[in-house]
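Inverse folding, one chain.
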């Protein structure tokens, strides 16, 4: 009779290994001890946070920039100048996000009599508040003048800015731009100021001060040309425009270039206007106003060619008006695609296109190469569909 096999219990567990338990316990102790000894990661430097916020503002990432700015504002180790810089940046972000009331309050908090206002206040706060005062030209003028006073004092070294002081060229540029902005307010037909008997002399005086600061500033010369145009002095205005164009830096803003081109068109200097516009469209071929001004220039050139019965810049009136139609059609398409805000511009474009249509001016024919290229893409698409 064989031996009986002992049956193992169904739920029997292996006995614990004391070596493994000891190792696990030791590992847990080491983890706890390491956590106790670990030092918290240091907070990023304030200047790094501000620099990152400025980079994000340049990149138009305003919500993320706001988060970096708010991190500075809650830090106890941030200095007074850093807090001021953060509040300035916050105002800019709020402005770009369309929170105008909050932006205004933020900039006002940087000015006396607010208890937290620095001394002297940053001129940028006045400059932004001037832009936010479009419904009150007198308040805007007061803010611009206040900014100019602070900038003049910085230029003369009477007091230092709370932030890193800008160089003289930057200070001079800001002063001139503020003077030019004041002139634009005085000349704006939307305000009663332009009907004031003192308006002309005031503009002359403001621009004289601007050119005293920087005699070769192209924006000041452009503004003076506008004044000369309003005074019915086209020859003087055109000379100033040529001077401004010559002095215009390579990195001049598109609005400045468009203003220059528009004034060239108004004074009949079409070749100069087209030269300026070509540079604008080379930088940004989706600029609605550039296409509009170019189309308007070609329209006026076509009128001149037809009236005189001669070519203008080697082109007949039909060719010029065809170019005008091409530009205006592009302008209309971009206006719709971008949901552009300038409705009067669109109305003028529609009027000009309607007139060109009545005169039988058709758009320029599409180049054959472009058609063949399109057909090639269409054929390739058909083949792809068939292959599927």
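Residues assigned per position:
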């Amino acid at each position: 009779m064989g031996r009986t096999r002992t049956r193992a219990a169904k739920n029997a567990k292996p006995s614990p290994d004391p070596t493994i338990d000891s190792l696990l316990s030791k590992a847990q102790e080491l983890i706890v001890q390491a956590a106790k000894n670990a030092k918290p990661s240091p907070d990023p430097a304030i200047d790094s946070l501000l620099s990152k916020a400025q980079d994000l503002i340049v990149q138009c990432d305003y919500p993320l920039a706001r988060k970096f700015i708010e991190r500075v504002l809650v830090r106890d180790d941030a200095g007074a100048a850093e807090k001021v810089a953060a509040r300035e940046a916050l105002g800019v972000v709020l402005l770009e996000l369309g929170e105008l009331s909050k932006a205004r309050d933020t900039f006002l908090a940087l000015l006396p009599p607010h208890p937290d206002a620095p001394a002297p206040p940053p001129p940028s706060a006045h400059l932004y508040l001037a832009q936010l005062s479009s419904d009150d030209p007198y308040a805007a003028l007061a803010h611009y003048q206040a900014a100019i006073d602070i900038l003049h004092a910085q230029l003369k070294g009477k007091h230092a800015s709370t932030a890193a002081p800008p160089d003289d060229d930057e200070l001079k540029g800001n002063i001139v731009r503020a003077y030019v902005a004041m002139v634009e307010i005085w000349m704006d037909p939307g305000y009663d100021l332009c009907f004031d008997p003192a308006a002309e002399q005031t503009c002359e005086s403001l621009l004289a001060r601007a050119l005293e600061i920087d005699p070769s500033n192209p924006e000041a010369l452009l503004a003076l040309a506008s004044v000369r145009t309003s005074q019915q002095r086209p020859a003087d205005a055109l000379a100033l425009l040529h001077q401004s164009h010559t002095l215009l830096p390579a990195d001049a803003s598109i609005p400045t270039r468009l203003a220059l081109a528009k004034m060239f068109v108004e004074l009949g200097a079409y070749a100069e206007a087209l030269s300026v516009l070509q540079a604008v469209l080379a930088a940004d071929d989706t600029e609605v106003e550039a296409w509009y001004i170019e189309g308007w220039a070609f329209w006026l050139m076509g009128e001149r060619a037809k009236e005189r019965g001669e070519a203008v810049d080697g082109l007949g009136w039909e060719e010029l008006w065809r170019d005008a139609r091409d530009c205006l059609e592009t302008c209309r398409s971009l206006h719709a695609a971008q949901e552009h805000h300038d409705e009067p511009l669109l109305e003028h474009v529609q009027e000009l296109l309607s007139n060109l249509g009545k005169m039988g001016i058709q758009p320029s024919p599409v180049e054959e190469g472009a058609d063949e290229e399109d057909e090639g893409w269409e054929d390739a698409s058909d083949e792809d569909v068939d292959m599927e």
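The longest helix spans residues 317-338. Confidence is low (pLDDT under 50) at residues 1-15, 371-388.
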